[in-house]
Amino acid sequence: MKFSQRILSMQYSPIRKLVPYADEAMKSGVKVYQLHIGQPDVQTPDSFFEGLHNYKEKIIKYANSRGINELLETFSKSYHKMGINLDPEDMLITHGGSEALMFTLASICNPGEEVLVPEPYYSNYESFLRSADAKLVPIETKLENNYHLPAKEEIEKLITPRTKAIMFSNPSNPTGTVLTLKEMEMIVEIAQKHDLFIISDEVYRQFIYDDIEYKSFLNMEGVEDRVILIDSISKHYSACGARIGVIASKNKDFINLALKLCQARLSVSTIEQFASANLINTIDTYLSEVKLEYKVRRDLLYNHLNEIEGVTCYKPDSAFYIFAELPVDNIEDFVIWLLTEFRYENQTLMFAPGPGFYSTPNKGLKEGRFSFCTHNLTEIENGMKVLKEALKVYKK
Hints:
Strand 3, helix 6 and strand 4 (135-140) form a beta-alpha-beta unit. Helices cover 39% and strands 16% of the residues. It has helices spanning 5-9, 19-27, 46-53, 69-81, 96-108, 124-131, 152-156, 181-194, 233-236, 252-264, 270-279, 283-307, 331-340, 377-395; strands at residues 31-35, 91-95, 114-119, 135-140, 163-169, 197-201, 227-232, 244-248, 321-325, 347-353, 367-371.
């Protein structure tokens, strides 16, 4: 039996593929501090569950393929509060941000076309591009520059007649870097000059911890018809399992064409859309409390990593992760060793190996992504004790 080259060329999740090792360790009674995944552990707002209970229809019907009006209008009001001018007709509701990305790439890319992506990047970007028969072309960023973009001429060297778009998360997963206004203006200039789409994945924009002014690409002048915004309630509201995402653009042709894919999968869950419409109204009070909690966790994790001999990192501006360089030769081997062999007071640690966030060969071999969204302060403290002791043993 033969399978498609498309599926054979896709990688398994670099984060989830190590879960069986962690499961085996936990089965044997070992405490595993799981700093590997971006699943928030703060409570989903009660308003989501109130929305579920308030659903009174006797038949759970298909929803409109575009999304239910209540949710589209709620998103529109929420965006307007943040200064993002989006009306209901500018949006499509999707099964999470993942489907929003897949539908976007399938709508704009022909087989063999290319999309520029700053690396390290959200690991599923490459899988989404492969499913669209398109190619990821990495833009190199470096730890010593806090993972900010290189000069304009370095990016333009990568552009070919096959280049279709620039795609990125802003704020960034996995680095937590927020693009400066100067970087955003540079991307706008490149997109205008080379006739490119700008795919801006902004699912972490609510979680900026320092005094940094954030601007959405939909607020940049002169590229309104080029910008495609990707969003989701997963991180904003600790509602990853609700699977509600958004594609948004002022380009009406794009929205109308992407609607074909929404129609092909019929609709997003009617009940979850209804509950999410009720959820989004709580954004103001909920986010201020959650941001403070995450900021404390970020500072604690950063301080501990910064104190461990041989570890190099910078304090992220946003998101839920710290991308750090460790004094090891192969980070994936190190994580597997942690899960299968190393024990400190019957405890060990799991985090995401760096190579899964790169497409350039041999990149990220010393880097790892540590999540602080799923762990209380005690678990972060204990996890860092494990890492400190593990590195001492591993060097020997």
